């Protein structure tokens, strides 16, 4: 590792710890050239995921783009930032664990919708309106009725559903 103080490539690791979330390793290093200490963060380099867009284009999966979409859907809602970070990371991990390294944007959108529905119904409808490209009020009404129907079914006892 190149020393940020003198540029030497000789150093020794003084201490290693897991970083936040356990996905990075924090290493404290000491330069053997100048004696200064510095910290590095190391992590696994992920396999490139490709998202197949509706028009057939393929682009790299972008965690920040997903996170921005969640931020927009959840704007002015009482949802902790850490929850949205965790949600985005869980979706990314689920995608990386798939055998197929290409996924349609529709599948990604449905994953987000399923999770947002559990967190906040307003954020869910906001995201759905953009993702599903609602064109008029009737499409909003249809989505709200489906949401209400699912909530009523969840409250019903198994006997009432028969």
3D structure, described in words:
The chain is an alpha+beta fold and 162 residues long. The protein is built from six helices and six strands; from the N terminus they run E-E-E-E-E-H-H-E-H-H-H-H. The chain has two domains: 11-43; 50-155. The strands form two sheets. A three-stranded antiparallel beta sheet has the order 1-2-3, with no helix packed on it. The chain has a three-stranded mixed beta sheet with strand order 5-4-6. The longest helix is centred in the C-terminal third of the chain and has 19 residues, at 137-155. The model is unreliable at 156-162 (pLDDT under 50).
Strand proportion, as a percent range, falls in 15-25%
Structural class: alpha+beta
Counted by DSSP, the helix tally is 6
Unreliable spans: 156-162
The rounded distance between the terminal residues' Cα atoms is 66 Å
Q: In which range does the helix fraction lie?
A: 40-55%
Q: So what's the overall shape? A: elongated
Number of E strands: 6
Number of domains: 2
Mean pLDDT: 85
Strand count, sense and closure of the main sheet?
Answer: 3 strands, antiparallel
Q: What order do the helices and strands follow?
A: EEEEEHHEHHHH
Please list the strands of the largest sheet in the order they lie side by side. Answer: 1-2-3
The whole-angstrom Rg is 23 Å
Question: How are the secondary structure elements laid out?
Answer:
Layout (H helix, E strand, L loop, with lengths): L10 E8 L5 E8 L5 E7 L6 E3 L5 E3 L2 H11 L7 H16 L5 E3 H15 L1 H11 L5 H19 L2 H4 L1
Parallel strand pairs: 4-6
Antiparallel strand pairs: 1-2, 2-3, 4-5
């Amino acid at each position: 590792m190149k020393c940020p103080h003198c540029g030497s490539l000789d150093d020794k690791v003084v201490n290693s710890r897991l970083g936040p979330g356990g996905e990075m390793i924090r290493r404290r290093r000491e330069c053997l050239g100048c004696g200064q200490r510095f910290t590095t963060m190391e992590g696994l380099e992920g396999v490139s995921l490709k998202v197949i867009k509706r028009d057939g284009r393929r682009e790299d999966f972008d965690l920040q783009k997903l996170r921005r979409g969640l931020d927009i859907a959840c704007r002015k809602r009482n949802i902790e930032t850490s929850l949205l970070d965790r949600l985005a990371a869980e979706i990314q991990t689920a995608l990386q664990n798939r055998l197929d390294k290409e996924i349609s944007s529709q599948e990604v959108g449905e994953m987000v919708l399923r999770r947002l529905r559990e967190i906040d119904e307003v954020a869910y409808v906001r995201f759905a309106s953009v993702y599903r490209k609602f064109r008029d009020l009737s499409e909003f009404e249809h989505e709200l009725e489906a949401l209400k129907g699912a909530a009523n079914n969840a409250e019903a006892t198994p006997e009432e559903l028969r």
